[in-house]
Hints:
Layout: H1 8-16, H2 18-39, H3 44-71, H4 76-81, H5 86-91, H6 97-100, H7 108-129, H8 132-136, H9 140-171, H10 178-202, H11 208-211, H12 224-238, H13 242-272, H14 277-305, H15 307-331, H16 337-362, H17 365-373, H18 378-406, H19 418-443, H20 450-464, H21 473-483
Amino acid sequence: MARRELKPINYVAYGLNDILGAGSMAVISGWILFFYTTFCGLSAVQAASIFAIARILDAVASPLLGHISDGLGNTRIGRRFGRRRVFLIFSIPLLPSFALMWVSGQHYLYYLVTYVFFELVYAAVIIPYETLAAEMTDDYKKKAKLAGARILTGQMSAILAGILPAWIVSAVGGKESASTFLIMGIIFSVLFMIVVFTVWMFTWERDLDEVGEQELTKGEGWTLSGSMKALYTNLLSTLKIRAFRLHLGMYLGGYISQDVFNAVFTYFVVFAIGGSVVIASEMMAVTYVAQLFAVAVAIPMVMRFGPSPSYRVAVSLYIIAIISLVAMYATTDNFNFVWLVVGVVIAGLGRGALNYIPWNTYNYMADVDQIVTARRREGSFAGVMTFIRKATQAFAVMSVGIILEFGGFVSNAETQNSQAISTIVMMMAIGPVLVLLFGFFVSTKFRLSKETHEVLMNEIEHFKAGHTKPTSPENQAIVEDLSGFSYKALWGNNTVGAVQQDGTASGRTHNANV
């Protein structure tokens, strides 16, 4: 069956979902810890514990959603409504739960329940959504454009997340209050409902006849009892794919650095350099504007030079920006607005590319997995990605809260002592730079590009035609590097994702490269 042709409306609709994906994460990472400790009476440790508890629950929920999505095509619901997009339509009425997180004056349990509930709704949308690029096309360039549409839209929503508090403060008379964040939560909730419906309308997934029996995750693994037995064997098996492991290293380097930076930045502006919430909001918006420009540049840059070299340029820019912001605090006693703007612009240029590159390369991970397993497991990879994204973000924000508490930070205080300020500055300087350097190192090992992906897809077709020998020694070396397996262990001749009735792995061992 011929694939449907991607039109501009499909690229736009697909990209719009990152108003939820990146927009909600930008709001949470940038403001939720500050909101909890400033307007809700929670200590930094109490606020941090909310993220920790949510991640424990998410450790089951997010991967399970991806795993069930892969096998839903074997059910009556999946055959009628699809195995991916059905999650989107059923999640729309639950998206206003985002606004409930921003009600002040409640007790700890209220904030825990509302945060956890929204995270589960978020997962129910994002995990199936993250499979759609691979479902809609196999073409390298089209997948890159879909990733670009997604990240560009995400940056625009992040700009809104940055500037909206300042706009609301101005609209309600110039006084910062908890209502600022509640209004922001309501606005984003309405946007989330609109965009998820739009995505559902203008995207599609592979026809089940096109997927084929051999490419579906099937059998006992899709049922609830079977899923729980097979789930972690299947999900952990995604980490056996070498390209995916390296991809995760680059992804975490780029995103954890931003999570720490975002969580600390408002404190840095307000308490370390003498700014205000409004200035912090405006600077976050400036950062996201620069990121939007950087994504537009990164798309053709990655196509020409490849993801790895582009990633290293982005890391270098971001590190320069962080050093310049810390130097501003260290070398001047007065608030320097121009220096601050220059620093966040450079940071935004690096961050924009760091946002785009991992999500561009992610779209090809199921292809690498297919040559190993002879199956399509987009849902499993989406489940792992969503869990790791939320887990690492929560860990970053949680760590900031704990370190603030033990560093002398006092909740609800208008000023902080020198110990607390030093703690804020040290977190800004050390945390992001360390993980950025880690990502830089990993990128030197990552060799997926337009050229190597073309070789990969040709070898997949070679296997489908019944061949067992590589088309050339050069192509053999490429697919072995991407997969981490010897050529003779590819196309299902391994234990990756294989599960017995008792849920344990079966079959023969594989020959994986480190």
